């Protein structure tokens, strides 16, 4: 039976990327928890699609990794794109709902406030309503929702990839010992699989962020110019996913983990560097950048005659021209 300390350490390693982001950044935001949950469901849909294709395939090719891995990568890529596309459509509905709520709240405030209330006091209440809506808008940007979606997608992927082995090793009541495999006789299988789950979890988060960027560009050509193509970015997620998947084929060889783990780590570093260098500086859409660049020291005043739509766009109501 695997020791408790080894099982606990491997579990912390395997699920640490998703768990740390969830606990530190996301759990207190109800709308982001919804994104986490729905993206986890999107991964389950991709697994279902892969299983259906596997059933359809002839029995002679069902065990060929050179067919199964690209097929699985395409299914997961398609579900990522579908999830982000659905999110973008829902985002516009949420924005319209926030704007309508803001208008109605300020209108009720103006109609029901005490006649003795000064313009300054009324303005403070209106700005409080606008500030609450603006904070919600700030939370619903592509970075926060991209990380939330990556946590859900990657967390469910890690759970499906590693959960069964962790449970069987940790709950082995017969005391049969720690499992080693010919593909990695140097370290226990529970450690090898934890490292794989850890790195794929990081990749899932980066791939989801890349998908957010790519789908935004596909849906908004005016954001183009010198920016990276949406089709290229989405395609790169599938290609890099396929490459990462093929590293696991090395585990079919004796001591294959000595090659597969370093190669997978190299892919993780390469994808992370590529995202940081080429996508991160231009990741956010213009509307999100302007929203986050608003000066919080300059609160908008709806008594100044400016439209409520403009007043509710930023906490500070200052859009920086690019």
Describe the structure.
The protein is an all-alpha fold. It is built from ten helices and no strands. The chain has helices at 4-26, 30-56, 65-112, 119-139, 142-170, 189-219, 230-247, 257-279, 286-292, 308-311. Helix 2 (30-56) packs antiparallel against helix 3 (65-112) and helix 3 runs antiparallel to helix 4.
Gyration radius (Cα, Å) is: 24 Å
Overall mean pLDDT:
78
Helix content: over 70%
**% residues in beta strands:** under 5%
Structural class: mainly alpha
Q: Characterize the biggest β-sheet.
A: none
> Tally of extended strands?
0
- How many helices does DSSP assign? 10
> Regions with pLDDT < 50 over 5+ consecutive residues?
295-322
Strand-helix topology:
Layout: H1 4-26, H2 30-56, H3 65-112, H4 119-139, H5 142-170, H6 189-219, H7 230-247, H8 257-279, H9 286-292, H10 308-311
Helix pairs in contact: 1-5, 1-6, 2-3, 2-5, 3-4, 3-6, 3-7, 5-6, 6-7, 6-8, 7-8
Short description:
By secondary structure, the protein is an all-alpha fold.
